[in-house]
Amino acid sequence: MSLHEPDFWRRPTSPPPAPLPSSQQWSIAAAAVGAMIMMVNFFAHAAPPAGADPALAPWFQSLGQPETGYPCCSIADCRPVQSRTTADHFEVFIDRKSFGADAPNAWVRVPAENILHRKDNPLGEPVACWYINEVRCFVQGSAA
Question: Which end of the chain is more exposed for a tag (fewer CB within 10 A), N or C?
């Protein structure tokens, strides 16, 4: 049958798909709303701290995880921290004032694989990148 034959345009079409049951419609709507809330929450936290020096942003953005090179953070989730050496590892104090209400407000062990051995720390203070309940990267202070 070709497009030029009169019967081509009169052939039956498939029926429209059946509507989703209302429980599936609500599940899809709930998932969409949940995704929007997570995106808003992510972007609300993705802002530099008050008084941050924008000139430091390139340094923060250059931090990459030692094993993968995957970006540790940006200026949005990295902050100067208190640090200490305990036995054979570093610990940093992740406080709520600096990192937000979900921060543990406690000393947190720095995974050895997330320590960056860089000497170009323009802040001079230890810096930790905290994201999803983990120290993603840690840079010692200049005096270390």
Answer: N
